[in-house]
Specification:
single chain; 146 residues; alpha/beta; Rossmann fold; 7 helices; 5 strands; 47% helix
Length: 146
């Protein structure tokens, strides 16, 4: 499976975007484009326009993003895809969570939900589901199971 193009919003850590690139993802980081301060719905629309998965740490706003995704789809924008992760410092866990969530979302049968967030995958991992390409050690890291 080819990794999807990612569009990281301005609150997603640049260090993590760079680390995702090192793992083989193509990432457009808003902070590198000079386009900052756009409303979230416009950022999501921008990502969909270029065929990218929107990546954000706006986990607390997940219900708003679900509404945005629905609104954009109803407006005819069919390629809306967003993954939302909790705020946490850049590091191995955030990198693995992002890579795993994006990979899992891409593996879902169409029609994929336009917005998924960390808890969607975490619940599946708790119940034994695994994401292709990730080890049990990776699962222990993302779930903070010592």
């Amino acid at each position: 499976m080819t990794e999807p193009l990612l569009f990281a919003d301005e609150d997603f850590p640049l260090d993590t975007a760079i680390a995702l690139r090192e793992r083989g993802f193509t990432v457009i980081a808003t902070v590198e484009t000079g386009v900052r301060g756009l409303p979230d719905i416009d950022q999501l629309r921008r990502a969909a326009d270029i065929g990218a998965v929107f990546v954000s740490n706006n986990y607390t706003e997940r219900h708003r993003f679900v509404a945005y995704g629905r609104e954009l789809q109803q407006g005819g924008l069919t390629g809306v895809a967003a993954v939302l992760l909790p705020h946490e410092p850049p590091g191995r866990r955030l990198l693995l969570r992002t890579a795993m969530l994006v990979t899992w979302h891409a593996s879902l049968s169409p029609p994929r939900p336009p917005v998924v967030y960390w808890n969607h995958l975490a619940q599946r991992l708790i119940h034994g589901e695994r994401v292709h390409g990730f080890t049990e050690a990776d699962v222990r890291i993302v779930m903070d199971w010592n």
